[in-house]
Specification:
By secondary structure, the chain is mostly helical. It has one domain. It has 8 helices and 6 strands, in the order αββββββααααααα. It starts with about 20 loop residues before the first helix and ends with a helix. About 30% of the residues are buried. The chain binds zinc ion (ZN). The site of zinc ion (ZN) has 8 residues, from loops.
Length: about 280
């Protein structure tokens, strides 16, 4: 093709033939930003070794170096948002030999009886798969669901199951946000995704209420007032506004809640009040 800038030589511009007007410059720029990000992500990820408590195999665990991800903000249900990497994508440890999967804080805490249940009900069916170095939200969802299935088989506490469900809700919300960044996004896919998010919010709510009644704190690294707050926010997301306000009020008047949690509790209360006015 002829040089679209031909004629500008007389204004002093030579060699204009190589200038590209649209797509390629943009693509290259996006590509170089992506390559830079990938290199940073590679520096943040590392592999550590662990022995699987179910089958005894040596397994490699993809992990995120502590303190490397920068927290930008958090949603009212405590979903954290980070800059270049999302550490909780790597929070499920999975043994590719036997299919045992659990959140890292629970992975080694398993009895012989529970291990035998996993062997009989998970390992016999499990077909391993290869995961790349960097996980996507979809891959994380798959791993969390496998951890959830394992938690049912090993008869885990309700708090453990609820925590996995909460994180699945966070993951589905993250996928929805990704879908909406496309101009011509698939509305059906978004709806399905939102339905999954709500289903897991509901399961997390049921599990945490049950844990609140039956278990002693802390659960999943959270103290009683944090779980109280979380149940309040999960109830709000499910449209149980009166119930939400009861839980949230406990947080606002609590002596054990820090300012960060109290501020979030006030935000939840304001959201309910404003919605009731509309
Ligand atoms: Zn194993």
């Amino acid at each position: 093709m002829s040089d679209i800038f031909s004629g500008l030589e007389k204004l002093g511009f030579q060699n204009t033939k190589e200038i590209k007007l649209f797509e390629e410059e943009k693509k290259n720029k996006t590509k170089s930003v992506r390559e830079k990000q990938q290199k940073m992500i590679k520096d943040i990820l590392y592999d550590r070794k662990l022995i699987c408590p179910v089958c005894g195999e040596d397994i490699n665990i993809r992990s995120v170096k502590a303190g490397k991800a920068k927290l930008l903000s958090s949603d009212l249900d405590l979903r954290p948002k980070y800059d270049i990497i999302t550490p909780y994508l790597y929070d499920v440890i999975l043994c590719n030999c036997c299919g045992y999967a659990a959140l890292s804080r629970f992975f080694s805490k398993i009895t012989r009886t529970q291990a035998s249940w996993i062997k009989n009900q998970i390992s016999t069916a499990y077909k391993g798969r290869f995961y790349p170095e960097e996980y996507t939200f979809e891959m994380a969802i798959e791993r969390y669901k496998l951890a959830l299935l394992n938690s049912v088989v090993k008869k885990a506490k309700d708090s453990e199951k609820a925590y996995i469900c909460l994180k699945l809700a966070w993951l589905y919300r993250s996928v929805s946000e990704e879908i909406m960044t496309n101009d011509n996004y698939d509305k059906q896919k978004l709806k399905e995704n939102n339905d999954y998010e709500r289903a897991f919010v509901e399961k997390a709510y049921v599990g945490f209420v049950s844990a609140y009644e039956k278990e002693s704190f802390p659960v999943c690294g959270m103290n009683e007032i944090t779980v109280t707050y979380l149940i309040g926010e999960l109830s709000r997301r499910l449209g149980k506004n009166d119930e939400s306000l009861r839980w949230i009020s406990k947080v606002i008047i609590s002596k054990n809640a820090n300012d960060r949690l109290k501020n979030k509790a006030r935000d939840v209360k304001d959201l309910i009040k404003n919605n009731n006015q509309n």
